[in-house]
Amino acid sequence: MDEQTFKARTKKLAVAVIKQMDKLPHSRAADVIAKQIIRSGTSIGANYRAACRAKSTPDMINKMKIVEEESDETMYWLEILTETGLVSQEHVQDIYKETNEILAMTVASLKTLRNRKS
Q1: Where are the domains of the chain?
Q2: Residue 1 pLDDT greater than 90, yes or no
Q3: How much is the pTM?
Q4: Fold adopted by 3-117
C-alpha cells in the first residue's frame, strides 16, 4: 500500500473513532474508555505521518513501532468497551477490523524496514 493511501486510511480511522465514541452512553467508565480510544485511535495516523518524515531508517522504525503500539492499544480498549457491555460488538466491529488491518500492515512494514536496515 502506498503512503498516501495509508495516510488516508489512518485519518479515516481517526474520524470514525471520534464519531463512534461520541455515540457512547455517558457514564464514568464509558467516558474514560472513550478518551483512551480517541487518544490511541487518533495517534495512529499522527505517528504514521511522523514516520513518513523520518530522517533515517532507524528513525522510521522507531516511529512505526509507535504506530504498532497505538494500534494494538486501540484494539485493547475496543475489547474492554465490548466486554464490559458498554457497547455491542457490532457497533465497533468496523473500527476494530480496520485497526487490525492497519496493525498487520504496520507489522509487515516493520519487517521490511528491519531487513533493509541489516
Answers
A1: 3-117
A2: no
A3: 0.94
A4: de novo design (two linked rop proteins) (1.20.1440)
